[in-house]
Amino acid sequence: MSKVILSVIGTAQDGGLPHPNCFCENCKRAINNPNFRRTASALAIVLPEKKKWHLIDATPDLKEQMSKLQMTFQLEGTIMSSIFLTHAHMGHLPGLLFLGKEGINTTNVPVFAGAKMKHMLENNAPWQLLTKLENIMLKDLRNEESVKINEQFSVLPVLVPHRNEFSETFAFRIIGPNKKVLYIPDIDRWEEWEIDIVDACKEADICLLDGTFHSPRDLEHIGRDFREVPHPLMTTTMEKLQEVTSQTDIYFTHLNHSNPALVSTGEERKELLKKGFFIAEDGMEFII
């Protein structure tokens, strides 16, 4: 059986790191040293022996993410075989435009999206041009209906509560030949989800979860209230999932530029690691 690799191609909240118009310590560090940069959260599922790959979310950083992935796996010139979209916020959708006439000019790349997302893409500029010119081919994503990619892995979309101004929001269960992965880059509150996050994580081997904010203090220095941008706090998530870390590897992704856990030598990171949790890194790979 050929290998299936889950590649973490981005781990930042929508605006990336450095964040636009921000000069906090995390952003200044990333401006001055590219080793500290992070691109917007996304995954790729790579079948290296078959020379194929699939994308989860099309971020504003897709151009950079795509070239790095292709060069890593000797896939230069190989377009993704499909794209799965979680939702319509700015860190997860704009990369589709690189597939259009002004960019790669792809032909009928399958794009899996929920009903509200499909309607938005089909009926609003500039997205509708992608379907009109057949750069992409929209496919249905339905809650709890598995999409079997081939005999080796499948993707199961699961609705989660989030700020659904333009589309529904999905988490994904990625089922490989050897491991199960739960991917939830965005959710408002664990308590608002009809599924118990503890049970969901216990069913997976690897979890990549919303780690946007560490605590309420994250945005104080720029005068913003974290409650205006609902996400579960990392401190809350760790408290809920402490018992799960002995059986499931739990990584935080979708990290806001303000998050102190970004600092590898900081107290927040040390505490997190001591409790058995991890920070996802751009370029990280898992064999699933």
Describe the structure in your own words:
The protein is α/β, with parallel strands linked by helices and 288 residues long. The chain has one domain (5-287): Ribonuclease Z/Hydroxyacylglutathione hydrolase-like (Metallo-beta-lactamase, Chain A, 4-Layer Sandwich), CATH 3.60.15.10. 19% of the residues lie in helices and 23% in strands. The chain is built from 7 helices and 14 strands. A 7-stranded mixed beta sheet has the order 6-5-4-3-2-1-14.
Count of the domains: 1
Corresponding CATH superfamily? Ribonuclease Z/Hydroxyacylglutathione hydrolase-like
Mean pLDDT: 95
Q: Low-confidence runs (pLDDT<50, min 5 residues)?
A: none
Write the H/E string, N to C: EHEEHEEHHEEEEEHEHEHEE
Overall CATH class: Alpha Beta
CATH architectural grouping = 4-Layer Sandwich
Keywords:
single chain, 288 residues, alpha/beta, Metallo-beta-lactamase, Chain A, seven-stranded mixed β-sheet
Quick gist of this model?
The protein is of the alpha/beta class. It has a single domain (5-287), classed as Metallo-beta-lactamase, Chain A.
Write the layout of secondary structure elements.
Layout: E1 5-10, H1 25-32, E2 42-47, E3 52-56, H2 62-72, E4 82-84, E5 109-113, H3 115-123, H4 127-132, E6 136-140, E7 147-148, E8 154-159, E9 170-175, E10 180-184, H5 197-202, E11 206-210, H6 234-241, E12 249-253, H7 267-274, E13 278-279, E14 284-287
